[in-house]
Design goal:
- The protein is built from 4 helices and 19 strands.
- The strands form 4 sheets. Strands 4-3-2-1-14-11-10-17-5-6 form a 10-stranded mixed sheet, with helices on one face.
- It is globular and about 55 Å long.
């Protein structure tokens, strides 16, 4: 299934995208798309309910409808840094021997086409197309006998927006450059795991004002999805609805010489094969105090 949430912020309703590109409102079947709905048994029950109600549910054209984040009430966003070999190379950093982890606050999540706010005096805001893994079953201390992909409900598209000065030049942890307001557009949809044949062979791209910046595949990941889920579960409990952003390929703004950071009015598109496409405009916020 391709699950979405449509409507104005705070008033989204659950929907599915059918093969004809139409949105079907399924709010009469479930209240929302949240952690409790992401267990495999719940998704299977929802699929049966949709099949039974097919033809009786209201539909909408895809164009013109606001798309919200595909999951409500995300508990945490775990991110993997330097997880593409060519991205580590462009950053001038060695290949990690273990996944590099950092956190994004769940309140950075916005819809896939919502505006993204450049912090008031930022000069180094950057883009990162990433595969988002959506957890569908509680995972803790997974062992070699566990099957980590059984704990995954599905996949989505994420833009791990970053402020490089805050991340790298202000001391301390990367979190400073990762948690500004609106810094995690997510969506447009949650594609359930059963619809993705090979998660480690999906093309992913980003563009700024129509110019391609990133073009790679998930095959360039240093640590694959299965290994990431197992690894993260050793350090924190993953709950249904949690998100793992799995890293970005080469071509980020910081990787150019000179760097090519985002400015007010820029439009960024990020896309992953089979998972959909985002397009959002970067606008400068006037709120907040000087850093």
């Amino acid at each position: 299934m391709k699950l979405l949430r449509i409507g104005m912020p705070g008033a989204e309703v659950p929907a599915i995208l059918d093969e004809q590109g139409r949105l079907t409102d399924i709010s009469s079947l479930i209240q929302d798309i949240s952690g409790a709905m992401l267990y495999r048994e719940s998704l299977e029950a929802l699929r049966r309910a949709i099949d039974s109600a097919r033809g009786t549910l209201p539909t909408h054209a895809f164009d013109g409808v606001r798309i919200g984040p595909p999951v409500k009430g995300v508990g945490k966003v775990v991110c993997v840094g330097l997880n593409f070999s060519k991205h580590a190379e462009e950053a001038g950093l060695p290949i990690p021997v273990e996944p590099v982890l950092f956190m994004k606050a769940a309140d950075t999540i916005v819809g896939p086409n919502d505006n993204v706010l450049i912090p008031p005096r930022s000069q180094k805001t950057d883009y990162e197309v990433e595969l988002a893994v959506v957890i569908g079953k509680t995972a803790q201390y997974l062992t070699g006998s566990d099957r980590p992909l059984d704990f995954v409900a599905g996949y989505s598209v994420s833009n791990d927006v970053s402020e490089r000065e805050y991340q790298l030049e202000r001391g301390g942890q990367w979190d400073k450059g990762k948690n500004c307001q609106t810094f995690n557009p997510l969506g447009p949809m949650l594609v359930t795991a059963d619809e993705v044949d090979d998660i480690q062979n999906l093309r992913m791209n980003s563009a700024v004002n129509g110019e391609t910046r990133q073009s790679s595949t998930t095959a360039d990941m240093i640590f694959g999805v299965e290994e990431i889920v197992r690894y993260v579960s050793q350090f924190m409990t993953l709950y249904p609805g949690d998100i793992i952003n799995t890293g970005t390929p080469e071509g980020v703004g910081a990787g150019f010489e000179p760097p090519r950071f985002l400015k007010e009015g820029d439009t960024v598109t990020v896309e992953i094969e089979g998972l959909g496409r985002q397009s959002h405009t970067f606008v400068r916020t006037v709120a907040g105090s000087e850093l």
